[in-house]
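BUG-227 | component: ligand-complex export | severity: low

The export step for ribulose-5-phosphate jobs runs without errors, but we want the raw record kept on the ticket for reference. Input record follows.
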Amino acid sequence: MNLKQMVGIEATKFIEDGMIVGLGTGSTAYYMVEEVGRLIREEGLSITGVTTSNATKEQAEKLGIPLKTIDEVSHVDVTIDGADEISADFQGIKGGGAALLFEKIVATYSNKVIWIVDHSKMVEHLGAFPLPVEVIPYGSQQIMRIFNEKNYHPVLRTNENGEYLRTDSNNYIIDLHLETITDPHALANELDKMVGVVEHGLFLDMVNTVIVGYDDGPRILTPQGQK
Ligand code: 5RP
């Protein structure tokens, strides 16, 4: 079993019968979604999924997981998702898979958020992983200019055909190559205020539990003050 599969399966132990579960996106969340499908099929659990991307929706539909949108539920009991980087104080960068907007919306309305990662994602400070910023195409070159002026080293993300990548909401992603983010909250505030920025990949003060995969097994970490 690889580390992503190990943490994906471990996280489903937090799911109880009857729960509404936020289903994350990416190669680690993939294994969690497969296991949710198995729990429904083989163990008869009643679970409703709220997906965070078209890719996860497709996977969940194939597995026969009953789905609702975030607007059709009053809340989400637990969301399980991957992450690109998690700092020592449990702040995160997400959006490597371009699903940050729906991921942040679903996490926001969740009673509990669990991130599942292999140990390579655990860092002292955020920033070595390029920070994704989702922007509306109209005006995106102006945002690029501003990011360049701020020396944020922005790169408009492209797809395998060399075209600008479109998110599930038809927006662009600008990746900021910052190397290190000294004050994540200040940067988040700055990005939140920019016209044309839809969302960014700084997920701050959002996670309740982190499950980290090591060769000798998963470790469950709980930020201070969380249950
Ligand atoms: C997608 C995400 C993913 O959760 C993140 O990129 C981690 O993906 P993976 O498990 O494939 O490394 O934020 O937008």
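Assignee comment: Attached the raw record above. The chain has two domains: 3-124+204-217, 131-200.
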